[in-house]
Design brief:
The chain is mainly alpha-helical. It is 60% helix and 0% strand. The protein is globular, with a radius of gyration of 16 Å. The two termini are 26 Å apart.
């Protein structure tokens, strides 16, 4: 998974909701791996991160509202087409984690948040 996340140390440990245990997280990862293995069984790839070209457009299709949202984000942040593809691959994985067949605008928005270092690089330049 292609994520860039700055995780600050929490200053307030109280009021934090329940989190997944290591066993629960492992179960989620295995579930998503099985989804991707089935999806790509006839291709020479195994993971969303390996998608490119026609396979990316086929297996990580965006609806019109998602394409518009992603284009707006790319324009506003000045991100590259490489970042575009990485965001889509990450959104595909987020959708898989939710058991969703299609990538929604919410999946794209979450993927952009996980790619926040792209934004920092652009802002720092």
């Amino acid at each position: 998974m292609d994520m860039q996340v700055d995780v600050p140390r929490p200053t307030d440990w109280e009021g934090r909701g329940p989190s997944l245990s290591s066993a629960e997280m492992r179960s989620e990862v295995l579930k998503v791996q099985a989804i991707q293995a089935e999806r790509y069984r006839s291709l020479p790839i195994s993971w969303n991160s390996e998608l490119s070209g026609a396979a990316l457009r086929h297996y990580a299709r965006l609806q019109k509202d998602g394409r518009e949202l992603l284009n707006d984000i790319l324009d506003n942040l000045g991100l590259s087409m490489r970042a575009h593809d990485r965001i889509i691959k990450l959104a595909r994985t987020i959708a898989d984690l939710e058991g969703a067949a299609d990538i929604s605008s919410a999946h794209l928005a979450e993927a952009v948040q996980y790619r926040n270092l792209d934004r920092q690089v652009v802002m720092d330049e």
